[in-house]
């Protein structure tokens, strides 16, 4: 999986890395147990500082998306069951996103259609 970094984006590079890896996992482009490049390799491949990749990996590890082991390197973690804390996090993010949609007069029908289309992109 080749990551595409947009240096002109308002989104920090480490967050772009996190977002793309999470999407790759959700789309089954990255499988549980699959080896990820080392921090150094990833930084070289995408042309960013090693500390940026390290920050992304640390964040992904804290959120349970990847596992690191000194002997085996970094691998994709198994899919997780939703905890109440995660469900609350999703609800809060949706609340803000839907508030923005309402302000921009996006209809509920359009939102539901978009959610269905996006959700279908991800393998269950």
Explain this structure to me?
InterPro entries: Tscrpt_reg_HTH_GntR (IPR000524), WH-like_DNA-bd_sf (IPR036388), WH_DNA-bd_sf (IPR036390). Keywords: DNA-binding, Transcription, Transcription regulation. This is HTH gntR-type domain-containing protein. The chain is mainly α. The chain has two domains: 13-76, Arc Repressor Mutant, subunit A (Orthogonal Bundle), CATH 1.10.10; 84-121. 56% of the residues lie in helices and 6% in strands. It contains five helices and two strands. It has helices at residues 13-26, 39-46, 50-62, 84-103, 108-121; strands at 66-69, 73-76. The longest helix has 20 residues, at 84-103. The radius of gyration is 16 Å and the shape is globular. The two termini are 19 Å apart. The model has no long low-confidence stretch (mean pLDDT 95).
The CATH top-level class label of the largest domain: Mainly Alpha
* Structural class determined from secondary elements: mainly alpha
- Compressed to H and E, one letter per element, the order equals HHHEEHH
Q: End-to-end span in angstroms?
A: 19 Å
Q: Stretches where pLDDT falls below 50 for ≥5 residues?
A: none
CATH superfamily of the largest domain: Winged helix-like DNA-binding domain superfamily/Winged helix DNA-binding domain
What order do the strands of the largest sheet run in, or round the barrel if closed? 1-2
Helix content: 55-70%
Fold-level CATH name of the largest domain: Arc Repressor Mutant, subunit A
Determine Rg (CA atoms, Å): 16 Å
CATH architecture call of the largest domain: Orthogonal Bundle
Q: What's the average pLDDT?
A: 95
Number of strands: 2
Fraction of residues in β-strands: 5-15%
């Amino acid at each position: 999986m080749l990551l595409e970094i947009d240096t002109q984006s308002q989104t920090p590079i480490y967050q772009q890395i996190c977002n793309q890896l999470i999407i790759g996992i959700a789309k089954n482009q990255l499988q549980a147990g699959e080896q990820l490049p080392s921090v150094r390799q990833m930084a070289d491949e995408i042309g960013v500082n090693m500390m940026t990749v390290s920050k992304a990996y640390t964040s992904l590890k804290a959120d349970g998306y990847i596992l690191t082991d000194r002997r085996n390197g970094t691998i994709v973690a198994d899919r997780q069951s939703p905890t109440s804390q995660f469900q609350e996090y999703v609800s809060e993010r949706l609340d803000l996103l839907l508030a923005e949609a309402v302000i921009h007069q996006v209809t509920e029908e359009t939102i539901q259609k978009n959610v269905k289309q996006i959700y279908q992109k991800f393998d269950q």
